[in-house]
Amino acid sequence: MNIPQWAATVAERFARRPWWILAVAVAFSVLSLWAVSQLPVYTSRQALLPHDNAVAARFDGFLKKFGAASDLIVVLEGAPSDELKTFADELAAALAAEPEIAQATARVDLDFLLEHAYLAVPEDRLKALAGALDRLAGAPIPSDASQIDAALDRLRERLDEAPAAPDAGIDIPTAETGLKLLAVLLDEWRRWLAADEVPAALDWGRLLAGQGGSEVANEGYFVSRDGRMYFLFVHPASASEDFTTTGPFIEKVRAVAATQAAKTRAAGRAAPKVGLTGLPAIEYEEHVSIRHDIALVVGSSAGLIVLLILAVVRSWRWALVIFVPMGLGVLWSLGLVLVTVGHLTLITASFIAILFGLGADYGIFTSARIAEERHSGKPLAEAIGAGIGASFQAVFTAGGASVMIFGALATVDFPGFSELGLVAAKGVLLILVSTWMVQPALYALLPPRLQPLPVAASAREIKPGRWPYRGSIAATLVAGSLAAAVFGIVWGYELPFDYDVLSLLPKDSEAAHYQSRMVAESDYQAEVVIFTARDMAEARRIAADAAKLGSVAKVQSLADLFPPDADARARNARRVGELAAAGAYAAKAAGLAGIGLPDRTFGRVRAVLERAGDFIDQSQELAFSAGHSGLVAALEQVRERLDAVRAGIDADPVRARQRSERFFRVLLSAAARGGALLEDWRRARPLTPEQLPPALRDRFFAADGTVAVYAFPAKTVYDPANLDRLMQEIYAVSPEATGFPATHQVFSKSVVESFTHGTRAAVAVCLLWLALVLRSWRGFVLASMPLLIGGGWMLGLMALGGIRYNYANIIALPLVIALAVDYGVWFSQRWFELEDHSLRQLNRVAGRVIGLAAGTELAGLGAITLANYRGVSTLGVNITIGLLCCLSATLWVAPAIGQLLDSRRKP
């Protein structure tokens, strides 16, 4: 007995014992439901990454030592700067009190850093500062307006004298540094003179540019370059990136921010706009969107498939005998996942809708053949067995091809694709089992009406007509179709890949919006490179080398607080503190700030500015003659700022005096605070990690002594050229670097390489399977050519439409191969079975069934295009294009191919 006859016998027995079969199916389903209830769904991106390489191992090692690698970033904007600072501080305090949050940082602890700033100052600079304070001890400092006037008169007389030559005992580097500082102060003075409104404070970003980073310049706050966006870095308490952890974490941050905004408005203050970004926010949006889309797609695809079947066959029994076996097969396959793969990921969970579309094909093909056998007059049970047997080879060939294709995907390195291949292969296999097992029993209990589906018997009643695919017309059509397919494959081979993960998110994604703005408008990114060092000496080396990289915008490290000569620096700092306290400079600066700037004093200031211009000109000539180009440039900067200040004063002397008085008061108050800070250095000592504030200690030190250094990329890491350059330079600094950019580079390369390997393997095994099973070159050509031609057209249309591959839709081509192989296989079988039928009759018989099968796939998969998550929706678009191309090739090109293979066939 051959296999189709054996299948017919078994199916007939199932049809004669339907309740037993359905009881077994229910038992399997109950067991599968239990397994599905136990099946974990891993929503973390880490579940999709290969974990058998060094990059993944380094990242996992960092997570074990430091916890979560990525912070949630809270963005504040849309309020005055003072309001943003207040809200940032209040929100950080509120967030830090929540159990889901380990840290919430709105600003650097400047007090701590400034108290220990001596550790970041070279020893020779500290000695120089001590010497300057020592010399200043004997210099009189004005204590009232008259003394200030006298000091300005002496300065004006000094400027009338000829400047000293640069080589006359002048420390040129120190002179250049002093002149640059003077230029910055003059530029800030000019800002106060020219502003429409009196500035509220000094612009520390301008004053300290290059002297300690944007945090120091902005009172420790993390801000954008224009100062309009403030950032809070929120570190989760759990290192898990699974949605069961990140979901409550994100929702807690939103709730706390909303509560704080309400309190702010109730207090009569302006509440800023709050946004979330960073990898936790991106992954949260991904999961929420995909979860919503899966529910939408599964529900709508199931509904559309049922509606389509009901609309075509006009019988709910037809819908049940097709839909129920397919649904049970999907359920069983999900249950089997628990004992095979052991979990679902976002990719494999999304595949349910594809199984719905694919699985309905087999039920349509078998039920159509059962209907033909019933039309021939066979009893119901016998007709069921005969229909299953007659369709067995085609369904086995098509289903086996899909299993082989998905099995080929299971061999790739990228776990996201390999697990998809494994889950899908078993899913197709169990849908086939369910179709051959459950459909006969269900059909026997609920036999549908016969008239809706076209069958071979009724085809004989169709009058033969003139079929257009004859002779040269058929040859031209086939040649043109092949040429278009070849061109499509060539163009499709060059389709670009979009590496930007943000482009997969919904169009209105808050996380993508703010992440893009952070890259463009600040020195911060969510995608940070992480270096780990065994000790502080290695951390210092890494921080210094990383800061020199052109691909790095900012380096965060505590290496400056732990210099190798910390004892010597602390000793010199204590000397500075003693001199500052002895000179009482803080009190004297505060006293000067209270004096103000009377008219007579302001007149002397203007006179000094006049003399200073000529003095600078003479100094420039001497510096130029001596060949000190750096000194010449520094003097030129001072001269430009000096001219700008004088122009501002001359434009409105009265307002200029008032603005200048305010400026000097604020400046001297800042100097008083600086003097007080220097006095505190009398207690200077080297630091230990245990003395750090908890936020700094936990971020930069692990329990085993490992030291972390963080580097923010200068450009987006979603551009492969930027990413490759960044990681090349990063690995030159330390081969042990990790973080999202490192894992993303592996991720992106694994995806592209796996797609290439998986697609080639899918095509190869599909063709090999067809050749082995069909064992006829004509059958092989008829079964495979629609698929190859349709696939080529698909690639060509994607190229013409400007569609790019991305991490989600790149799998579309192998999926289309697995989905559309059914069309050619069914057409090929019907071609040889209905040899006495004309081409027109054959196309009516086979084409209607193929069209219904394709319609169910399009109904199931076309719904994916409605997804909010653009990664899923673009996958649906690509699959829809592919299925339509393969369907068109089957219905219009396959008959022409058949005509060329058998020219004796009646048209």
Kindly describe this structure:
- The chain has 33 helices and eleven strands.
- The chain is 68% helix and 5% strand.
- Mean pLDDT is 84; it is low at 210-216 and 452-466.
- A hairpin with a 6-residue loop joins β4 (222-223) and β5 (230-236).
- The chain folds into three domains: 3-45 and 283-501 and 745-901, Multidrug efflux transporter AcrB transmembrane fold (Up-down Bundle), CATH 1.20.1640.10; 71-107 and 223-277, Alpha-Beta Plaits (2-Layer Sandwich); 112-213 and 565-683, no CATH class.
- The two termini are 36 Å apart.
- The longest helix has 35 residues, at 279-313.
Fold blueprint:
Elements (H helix, E strand, L loop, with lengths): L2 H14 L1 H21 L2 E2 L11 H13 L5 E6 L3 H16 L4 E5 L4 H6 L7 H14 L8 H16 L11 H23 L9 H4 L5 H5 L4 E2 L6 E7 L6 H24 L6 E5 L1 H35 L2 H24 L4 E2 H5 L1 H24 L4 H30 L5 H31 L10 H4 L12 H22 L16 H12 L7 E5 L2 H12 L4 E5 L9 H18 L1 H11 L3 H27 L3 H23 L1 H28 L13 H7 L6 E7 L6 H14 L4 E2 H35 L2 H24 L11 H22 L5 H24 L7 H32 L6
Parallel strand pairs: 1-7
Antiparallel strand pairs: 2-5, 2-6, 3-5, 4-5, 8-10, 8-11, 9-10
Helix pairs in contact: 1-16, 1-17, 2-13, 2-17, 4-11, 6-22, 7-24, 8-25, 11-12, 12-13, 12-15, 12-32, 13-15, 13-17, 15-16, 15-17, 15-31, 15-32, 16-17, 16-29, 16-31, 19-30, 19-33, 22-26, 23-26, 24-25, 25-26, 29-30, 29-31, 30-31, 30-33, 31-32, 31-33, 32-33
